[in-house]
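For anyone still unconvinced, we reproduce a single protein record, the chain in one-letter code, the fold tokenised, and leave readers to judge:
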Amino acid sequence: MTTKTPLLIEHFDIWAAAVTTKSSSGRDSNGKPELYGLKKLRELILELAVRGLLVPQDPNDEQASVLLEKIAAEKATLIKEGKIKPQKKLPPITEDEKPFELPKGWEWAFLGNLSSDIHSHYALI
């Protein structure tokens, strides 16, 4: 029985060997070589993880909607106890604001709905 090597691993030498020279302008510009391939590989891995494509999704995991309800209930309790201030209600996320389709069970949410200390944009869970 043979196993197929994942494409990224099979060609890791190509990713690792891709080098470019840093720009000679701006801060930290010393003309040293930069591991461009590894930088792009890190970006790709992060992109795949954010989209839920890096590992298979477990259908038994708790749905994001349940987690969002728990967060909302906890925030309501903290507001009632006076530990945090009430926040302005954020509008629903529109289809135009969603840059890509999420895996089943994931949901888009504004970061401000997840924490009392975050006041910007949206997250996916």
User: Anything to note?
Assistant: The chain has two domains: 7-50, 64-124.
